[in-house]
Amino acid sequence: MTTPQRDDFFTLVHKALRGGLLTLYVEAGRLDWQDADVVAEYARRWDRIVTLFRSHAVVEDTYIWPLLEAKRPGAVAQMGIAHEPVESDLDVVDAAMQVAVKMPTHANGLTFYRALGWFTADMLDHLGAEEPAVMEMLWATCTDEEIGRVRAQFMSTMDPQESAWTFELILTTSSRVEQLAVVGGMHAVMPAEAFAGWLGGLSKVLPPEANAQLISVVDEVAGG
């Protein structure tokens, strides 16, 4: 049986977000804006990553930051991890993307690409301010039971399709060892019913290959 580490809210999700964002940034630089099918596929993937960034911010603001503030009042401001600045940046780059999709010219594509570069730099800096400092602070001040309750709360509110998109990115941006450690941490601290609900909802929407990888990770964590 895999020995779990303490539950970690950030590492794998942040790897997934970074990987998805950086891939889109590189692809934006070589995108053929005259090819309608290519632009439509890129726009679909762009909308997906925007949804994931916004959902991730909501989870932190609604569940994780209140726990952090309860233990270390003023920590969010002191650490500079409020989401308003990066949310504003995301609004700007998303607006540039919508212009490029509606009027797909080289000039509009280049404007989007440059805006995406600024956003990528700001977002990488933001994620770096959160990780690992926030989780280390929570580990120092919270019990596993407190962390597990918050984990169960936000996992129960997550849209299964968004969870599936995130997990697909996790599979391409993290090692097997990391996947086992984080899923093991979740398994150890979440109530069994909550963990089973997360697993069942995710399994319904993951592509078959990704679902098989998820089940393999869970089975190894459980000693199966």
Any overview of this molecule?
The chain is mostly helical. It has one domain. Helices cover 83% and strands 0% of the residues. It contains 11 helices and no strands. Helix 1 runs antiparallel to helix 5. The chain is globular and about 55 Å long.
Structural class: mainly alpha
Radius of gyration: 19 Å
**How many strands appear in the DSSP assignment?**
0
Overall geometric form: globular
Fraction in beta strands = under 5%
Beginning-to-end CA distance, first to last residue? 8 Å
Question: Percentage of helical residues?
Answer: over 70%
Question: For the residues shown, what is the average pLDDT?
Answer: 93
How do the helices and strands follow one another from N- to C-terminus? HHHHHHHHHHH
Report the sheet with the most strands, covering strand number, pairing sense and barrel closure.
none
List the helices and strands and how they pair.
Blueprint: H1 11-30, H2 36-71, H3 75-79, H4 84-102, H5 106-130, H6 133-141, H7 144-157, H8 160-173, H9 176-189, H10 192-205, H11 208-222
Helix pairs in contact: 1-2, 1-5, 1-8, 2-4, 2-7, 4-5, 8-10, 9-11
Summarize the structure.
The protein is mainly α. The protein has one domain (11-222).
Structure keywords:
224 residues; mainly alpha; 11 helices; 83% helix; 0% strand
